[in-house]
Recover the amino acids of this structure.
């Protein structure tokens, strides 16, 4: 009886802290006013401006700089908000944006995933998960995720990226703004010929297999909620694509194994279409590349 009584008292003591977790999480991680998190805030505001969405675009800066949502929507015949974050959030951010979108629009059908070609070479985005997960909708969080969250909190708070993000946010109150006309983070100066001369192809030995973890979570979520999830690579300079054929084949095999519909055709850029990175479309070419993606993806969309 004493053990049971102690357990009850302990539960009563701990319960307020458990209930406060979503509020604390929202304050510390979601509402943080850092340069990276501002694009997330912008996308959430955009999502909340729409109702009853059936198709969305999710991904990173390769998407944000490539697709004009208004032109894309006109070409496929329905409103399709571009909810691109950036590469810092990785697959985790894409996963959580998809969950947020479904929670916002229960009739969601098509999820178009556009990630930069080298995403599989980047570090696992646990911090991107913590900074985008919606704990105010606990039914969307899996049991394993609840068990992992304390460890992810610790890693985020004490990782170099977390510390640097907070420091940068305080010391640089006016980072690159959202370019309203371009609907994404303002680009830097376009790459010069000298920058392009050093560009190399991507190699398979740099693929991080653990990176597919959040992509697998997204694939499982799509199946569970009957979503038509379509993966297509972001645009890349033609020369890099030509030098990365083996890498592309290997990455495509990994994505195929996850069970997400994969559009293997690459969208490549000429030199005069490149912006401030070899996977960023120059602002003046955005509508043209949007049309390419619309034609490529239209056959895969469900009514």
């Amino acid at each position: 009886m004493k053990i049971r009584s102690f357990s009850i008292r302990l539960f009563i003591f701990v319960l307020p802290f458990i209930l406060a977790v979503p509020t604390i999480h929202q304050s510390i991680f979601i509402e943080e006013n850092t340069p990276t998190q501002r694009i997330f805030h912008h996308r959430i505001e955009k999502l909340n401006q729409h109702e009853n969405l059936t198709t969305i675009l999710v991904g990173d800066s390769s998407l944000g700089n490539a697709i004009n949502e208004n032109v894309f929507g006109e070409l496929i015949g329905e409103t399709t908000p571009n909810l691109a974050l950036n590469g810092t959030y990785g697959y985790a951010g894409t996963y959580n944006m998809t969950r947020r979108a479904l929670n916002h629009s229960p009739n969601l059908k098509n999820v178009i995933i556009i990630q930069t070609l080298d995403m599989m070479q980047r570090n696992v985005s646990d911090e991107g998960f913590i900074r985008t997960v919606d704990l105010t909708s606990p039914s969307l969080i899996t049991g394993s995720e609840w068990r992992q969250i304390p460890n992810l909190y610790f890693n985020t708070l004490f990782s170099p990226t977390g510390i640097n993000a907070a420091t940068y946010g305080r010391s640089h109150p006016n980072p690159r703004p959202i370019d309203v006309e371009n609907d994404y983070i303002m680009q830097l100066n376009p790459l010069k010929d000298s920058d392009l001369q050093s560009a190399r192809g991507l190699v398979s030995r740099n693929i991080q297999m653990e990176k597919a973890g959040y992509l697998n979570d997204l694939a499982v979520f799509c199946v569970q909620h009957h979503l038509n999830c379509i993966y297509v690579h972001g645009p890349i300079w033609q020369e890099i694509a030509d030098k990365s054929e083996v890498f592309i084949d290997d990455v495509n095999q990994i994505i195929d194994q996850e069970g997400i519909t994969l559009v293997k055709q690459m969208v490549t850029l000429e030199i005069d279409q490149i912006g401030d990175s070899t996977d960023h479309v120059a602002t003046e070419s955005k509508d043209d590349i949007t049309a390419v993606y619309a034609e490529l993806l239209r056959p895969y969309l469900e009514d």
Residues 13-20, 163-173 have pLDDT under 50 and may be disordered.
